[in-house]
Amino acid sequence: MAVKQEHAPEQCKVVDEGITRVFQVLGKRWNGPIISVLIDGPAHFADLRRAIPGISERMLSDRLAELGATGLLLREVTEGPPLRVSYRLAEKGAALESPLRELAAWAEKHLTDKPAC
Amino acid sequence: MAVKQEHAPEQCKVVDEGITRVFQVLGKRWNGPIISVLIDGPAHFADLRRAIPGISERMLSDRLAELGATGLLLREVTEGPPLRVSYRLAEKGAALESPLRELAAWAEKHLTDKPAC
After folding, report:
1. A12: nearest CA partner in chain B
2. Are A27 and B25 in contact (CB < 8 Å)?
């Protein structure tokens, strides 16, 4: 005998686990733009800062450390002088290229005006 | 006569404008998961709250208002009693299905462990 359903099916919805994980990373304001810039190739800290209007030095530094810890990017030091640090995507970061391009295309089509704040 | 280039090309990088716009929306922790749940169909406030572990009532309410203002979702009131409010994606929100599926597939493959906090 079937157990009597006490609730409608929509009450059983649970967010996809992959989506939850993705937005633990991309749901932080600057991570998407940082990865997006690095998709075009490695960049120095100053290049990244210049490429992303509005990001502070502290924010960029925190996000780069975090993306490094998550294994999405690699930090490379070139012995100097001057000593230079550059960042490039690890394989799993580079694999975001296709979904990010889709998101950019979506924005191109659907977010022509800046969203309301 | 060509103007002498004073800087390397990587210093001219600027983040894609579509990416900037996308992450003004999806770069907020809960927006991706909310949209993702609504892709499966309309949901009441309580269903959404249950579907997204960790979200507070206040956060969900703020994000829904914001996503509504951006035109990504619609709020529908069913006269009661009991009066019920449900949310469903507008066309441009629904158009996020494909990029979100790609992101979920990426997470499935590359984010098997929870990212470091």
Report:
1. B51
2. no
The confidence score (pLDDT) of residue B5 equals 52
The domain of B47 spans: 19-110
For residue B24, is it within any domain? yes
A contact test, residue of B7, B21, B96 with most A CBs within 10 A: B21
Residues 44-73 of A with CB under 8 A from B: 44, 46-47, 50-53, 66, 69-70
pLDDT value at position A79?
87
A32 → chain B, closest CA residue: B23
Q: Give the CATH number, domain containing residue B25.
A: 1.10.10.10
Q: What is the pLDDT of residue B81?
A: 87
Number of domains in chain B: 1
| Nearest C-alpha neighbor of B100 from the set B30, B48, B39 | B39
Residue B4 Cα distances to A51, B1, B31, B38, angstroms = 22, 9, 46, 53
- Residue B85, in any domain of the structure: yes
Give this prediction's pTM: 0.85
A110/B19 Cβ within 8 A: no
Tens of pLDDT, residues A75-114: 999 887 888 899 999 999 999 999 999 999 999 999 876 4
| ipTM of the prediction | 0.83
- Chain B contact for A103 (CB, 8 A cutoff): yes
CA gap B38, A87 in Å, rounded: 36
Sheet containing B43-44, strands listed edge to edge, beginning at the edge strand earlier in sequence: B43-44, B84-89, B73-78
